[in-house]
Amino acid sequence: MAKDKLIFFCQNCGYESAKWMGQCPACHEWNTFVEEPAHPKKSQSADKAGAMGRKSVPRRLSEIRLDETNRVKTGIGELDRVLGGGIVAGSMTLIGGDPGIGKSTLLLQVCRALTDQGMHILYVSGEESLRQIKMRANRLGTFGDTLELLCETNLDTIVQVIERTQPQAVVIDSIQTMYNEAVSSSPGSVSQVRESTGVLMRIAKGMQISVFIVGHVTKDGSVAGPRVLEHMVDTVLYFEGERNASYRVLRAVKNRFGSTNEIGVFEMRSDGLAEVENPSEYMLDGRPEGASGSVVACSMEGSRPIMIEIQALVCRSNFGYPRRTANGTDFNRVNLLVAVLERRAHLNLSSSDAYINIAGGVKMTEPAVDLGIVLAIVSSAKDIPLDDKTVVFGEVGLSGEIRAVSMAQQRVSEAEKLGFETVILPKANRKSIRLPKDSKIRLCPVESVSDAIRLIAQGKR
After folding, report:
1. 163 burial class (0-12, 13-18, 19+ CB within 10 angstroms)?
2. Using CA of residue 413, residue 415, residue 419, residue 425, what is the dihedral sign?
3. In this structure, how many other beta carbons lie within 10 angstroms of the beta carbon of residue 290?
4. How many CB atoms lie within 10 A of CB 219?
5. CA gap 51, 26 in Å, rounded
6. CA nearest 133: which of 120, 114, 150?
7. Rounded to whole angstroms, how far apart are CA atoms 18 and 8?
8. What is 292-355 written as a DSSP string?
9. Which of 81, 134, 253, 371 has its CA 20 to 30 A from that of 318?
């Protein structure tokens, strides 16, 4: 009997090699190669999945009707926003997140909303029993009769059930538990995840079924398995947040049918996930009044402006090496802004510790929050509290200049809607802002970090 040929796969990017290598030549990651069978045989179900649906004939662009890509609203506004307006027929969506973050709860709520519209849904679980799913469903409310549950890990059996029942949407929880008989490796391996996803993708495209798959994440927060998994699907969503906190953030990192900058905010309750329609008000809840080191900044997430509280604490260092800590923003960016303050604003921070925190546990990396971080550090170092009705935004350059940011009009409008009275913004953005005649908000354009520091110092006097 001939011995099966083996090949090595990179778990990070899917690069193939005939021998093991310490570093992947494609993604340059170390110790990511695993041994898998080289040429798995095709299963009968995989052949059926590739042949089902429309014939493989080319069509003219003018012959394709736009109503073929109509979206279906899920009934969950925050999810529809992240997806770009709803679910597209024949699409495949990957949802990743830490264990216990609420991925299964969110998908079960999606199933409930779709069954209320009369859609036929198949929920496949490889991790929970039918009784466990029923217990979670009882907490969420009543479901329609069009939701069917299946506890199965054999992909061939799942494909046969899908062919027989013809559902409009399928949920796979999770892809790491699925087992394809055509691949000899264990469930969760590189080959199993890649081949199983390929079969499900052919089903989604051939039968015009919307498929949702749940993916486990690694220690660094990325989806477990080969990186090619994210390239195969149409949409990749990450569910972020702390398990001991009530908020959850759903972020799109890939979306072929919409923007990749949109986020959805949810609150975990006893009866499931509740939408947070006004994230700005939610993020600023409990903000201290008249405290130094606290600044409200405006960040854009897709088309939505969100007000966040940036907190800074600057204190004398007890050691020879000052400590810098950043929570919720880029650590290297904070170090860069501290260096700008020392060089351009002549603020001595070389003997002080600096701690930066984005209140609420959200992660913001947009350059427009630079000015908020700078003013929070200055406010804490000089013990100058900012006015509670002031919002700041702007990008800080290495020369200390305040550079323009996008969507300044939307940021100012959001600040006025929430009751803020003053906006500190880049001078380059002032010309593009049109205020209504009855507007009472005051705009304070600044050109440099020194101008912004002088502005808040005058407010103290």
Report:
1. middle
2. negative
3. 9
4. 6
5. 33
6. 150
7. 6
8. TTEEEEEEEETTEEEEEEEEEEEEE-SSSS--EEEESS-HHHHHHHHHHHHHHS----TTEEEE
9. 371
The Cα-based distances of 399 to 341, 357, 377 in angstroms read: 10, 25, 18
Q: What is the pLDDT of residues 193-214, one digit of tens each?
A: 888 999 999 999 989 999 999 9
Q: What is the CA radius of gyration of the chain?
A: 26
- Give this prediction's pTM: 0.76
Report the relative pairing of strands 6-10 and 16-17 from DSSP bridges: antiparallel
Q: How many of the other CB atoms lie within 10 Å of CB of 327? A: 14
One-letter amino acid at 325 equals T
Query: Bridge-partner residues for 446, per DSSP?
Result: 426
Q: What is the pLDDT of residues 83-92, one digit of tens each?
A: 988 999 899 9
Burial 258-267 (b: 16+ CB within 10 A, else e): beebbbbbbe
Predicted confidence band of residue 398 (pLDDT cuts 50, 70, 90): very high
**Helix and strand numbers, DSSP H then E, in the chain:** 12, 23
Phi, psi of 241 (to 5 degrees): 135, 165
Cβ burial of 232 (10 Å; 0-12, 13-18, 19+) is middle
Output DSSP code: residue 401.
B
Please check the confidence at residue 44 and state whether its pLDDT lies above 70: no
SS3 178: coil
What pLDDT, in 10s, does the model give residues 314-336? 999 888 789 999 998 999 999 99
**Measured at the alpha carbon of residue 285, what is the angle toward residues 284 and 291, in degrees to the nearest 5?**
70
HEC profile of 99-130: CCCCHHHHHHHHHHHHHHCCCCEEEEECCCCH
Distances (CA, A) of 414 to 129, 200, 297, 374, 426: 46, 42, 11, 22, 17
